[in-house]
Amino acid sequence: MRHLKRTAKLGRTGEHRNAMLANLVCSLIKHNRVTTTLAKAKAARSVAEKMVTLGKRGSLHDRRLAASRLHQQDAVKILFDQIATTHKERHGGYTRIVRLGQRQGDASQTAILEWVDTPLPEKAPAGESKAEEVTQPAEAKEEAAKPA
């Protein structure tokens, strides 16, 4: 019987899936935000939350368990020293998934996996783009501001 054995297979073998999820969580730890597919984000969320729980406990045994799962000592150090201390008062729910939409190439759902304590990206007002604002030289902005 396969009771309570449900996991996202993601079209990979068990070893490949574990290595991919460990790499995804390490990238989340190092960069605080990862853009990936929705299915991978949902699978990586549980791994990331378990790693934060280990970091909050903070014993040597927990550090070794995290290192054996993530395979990157620098990520484990950041996890235990910075991320676990910022989530000390929180009882679970350390990550959020923000859906982005479909990817151009294969139309798969994409999402951002990030820590809860990072602010949400702000949306630009309609009709105004940040790219236009950055690419305009300072002189053009001054001329546009002058009355005609």
Structure overview:
The chain has 148 residues and is of the alpha+beta class. It has one domain (14-121): Ribosomal protein L17 (50s Ribosomal Protein L17, Chain: A). Helix content is 52%, strand content 14%. The protein has helices spanning 14-31, 38-57, 60-70, 73-86, 130-135, 138-145, and strands at 33-37, 95-102, 109-115. A hairpin with a 6-residue loop joins strand 2 (95-102) and strand 3 (109-115). Mean pLDDT is 87; it is low at 129-134.
Name the assembly state: single chain
CATH topology: 50s Ribosomal Protein L17, Chain: A
The N- to C-terminal Cα distance equals 79 Å
Q: What strand line-up does the widest sheet have? A: 1-3-2
- Kindly give the count of domains: 1
Main sheet attributes: strand count, strand direction, barrel closure: 3 strands, antiparallel
Give the helices and strands as they follow along the chain. Answer: HEHHHEEHH
**What is the CA-based Rg, rounded?**
20 Å
Taking pLDDT < 50 over at least 5 consecutive residues as the criterion, the unreliable ranges are: 129-134
- CATH homologous superfamily - what is it? Ribosomal protein L17
User: What's the CATH architecture?
Assistant: Alpha-Beta Complex
Shape: globular
| Classification by helices and strands | alpha+beta
**Count of helical regions:** 6
Strand content: 5-15%
> Mean pLDDT, rounded to whole units?
87
